[in-house]
Design goal:
Layout lengths: L2 E5 L2 E6 L1 H12 L5 H8 L3 H13 L19 E9 L1 H6 L4 H9 L4 E6 L6 E7 L2 H12 L5 E8 L3
Antiparallel strand pairs: 1-2, 3-5, 3-6, 4-5
């Protein structure tokens, strides 16, 4: 089976089952060496190396990142915050939602921020130590940003 990837409107590459197996192995453990991926998938190491390089170069693999155990670093309270923007105010300020995303990304404890449709304008994922810190981040940092008019917070149940 082949998968067709489109990057910026251009056909980049055909991804086959070997690529899918390599990606599946890396999703389980992004720190795997090419040798470990080869051993796990049964694909020759030289093939794994070439294909991983291709997957990075074509943008299929954007980055290698950490998957933290937030409990172990004292940030076990996870929340999603649905943020409402004042689009008219942003327009007057010659800004848009993506400018707000950049500002929110700089707030400590914020892990991920995306523009969304439906129910709000932006969603942010964050991890804090406790409700006191959550309150400080929400009221003291996020809702203090010009152009943000409200937020709805959902706590994650583990």
């Amino acid at each position: 089976m082949a998968y067709l990837y489109i990057l910026c409107g251009t056909y980049v590459s055909i991804m086959d089952e070997k690529d899918a197996e390599i990606l599946a192995a890396l999703k389980q453990d992004g720190r795997m060496t090419t040798r470990e991926v080869a051993r796990k998938t049964g694909i020759p190491i030289s093939t794994v190396h070439k294909r991983m390089k291709k997957l990075v170069e074509t943008g299929v693999i954007k980055r290698f990142t950490l998957d933290l155990d937030y409990d172990k670093i004292g940030k076990g309270l996870a929340a999603y915050v649905l943020i409402n923007a004042d689009l008219k105010q942003l327009k007057r300020m010659k800004k848009d939602r993506y400018d707000l995303v950049k500002q929110i990304q700089r707030v400590p404890n914020v892990d991920q921020v995306e523009v969304v449709i439906g129910g709000g304008d932006i969603i942010a994922q964050l991890h804090v130590a406790d409700m006191k810190e959550l309150n400080a981040v929400l009221l003291g940092k996020i809702q203090a940003i010009d152009g943000i008019v409200g937020a709805t917070t959902c706590l994650v149940m583990h």
